[in-house]
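The material for today's practical consists of a large collection of protein records. Backbone structure tokens are a discrete shorthand for how the chain folds in space. An example says more than a description, so a record of this kind follows:
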Amino acid sequence: MILKSIALKNFRNYTDLYLEFDQGTNILYGDNAQGKTNVLEAVYVSGTTRSHKGSKDKELIQFGQEEAHIQTIVEKGGLDYQIDMHIKKNRSKGIAINKIPIKKAAELFGILNIVFFSPEDLNIIKHGPSERRHFLDVELCQLDRIYLYHLTRYHKILNQRNKLLKDLHIQPDLKDTLSVWDMQLAECGEKLISARKKFVHELNEIIFEIHKNISGNKEELFVRYEPNVDQGLLEHELQRNQTRDLKFGMTTIGPHRDDLCFLIHDVDIRKFGSQGQQRSCALSLKLSEIELVKKLIQEKPVLVLDDVLSELDSGRQNYLLNSIHDIQTVITCTGLDEFVKNRFEVNKVFQVINGTVNAKNGV
């Protein structure tokens, strides 16, 4: 899989931009707040329909404009795909694949598989469960459209059930309808639990060796899936917890409260790991993502590194750079010293200055 080009119009601080990428390593460098991350954000939106920052559509549009446009050309399986995305202030975005409009954003997933790594991801281990669930969901949605369907439906039903729980304080006669939502929520939720369980099992087959290498054979990492409710028991538990849910006006159990635990020699790194161990685990997680995508779809994803090298020590920098030589990578950084020092081959360089991008030869 190769990201061949991207064109931006009225996106963030870019009025009009066109970039062609090399199939090897591409670097966008320049001072902070010049627009480097904005390019990566546009790439991520092209593959997932959403900003990696969680920004709303209207925030992606250049100030003073009514809409933005992203066009990417992706080569996958020997075929070219043109993805056009019109982002509008007050309406849902319009998406076309090879100039044919699609009705559901879900049809886009899987065309451009992206592994995105930013400094924020280095804290995925020590931060709250929502970030680890987000990791699970983003990766599974890119790999499995059926999972995306069930996840979307689950959250719609969850919102309806939560609304009913609040309404019951005013209209208690509606309580008999709660069991209908329990049944539907459990049906979708069980499928999420099953898919997540399988994904983590496959992840463990890969991450063990990667982390062992990163730690110099000193540490053995195991990822444990922690479902909020055991598989097969969701509907029963929803009904058993109805009184508590009514009290709080929200659904207090289900896959929306799942978590991942990272264990090194049976020690929970979320709570007891050093910052170095937590960062090594995060790096292992991202590198495992790459290998997992290769294994499951027989394609290499596009790796996007947003100023992450500056947050790693030299040992982890070297391991990361040595691990990505055979995959298309787009990297942002403030300078090129690390690449020159490590004699790392860079195929294409872009200098970014206040929303202007100039292409240069590799280093």
User: Anything to note?
Assistant: Residues 1-113+300-363 form a domain with the Rossmann fold fold (CATH 3.40.50.300). The chain is about 40% helix and 25% strand. The first helix runs from residue 36 to 48. The chain has a mean pLDDT of 92.
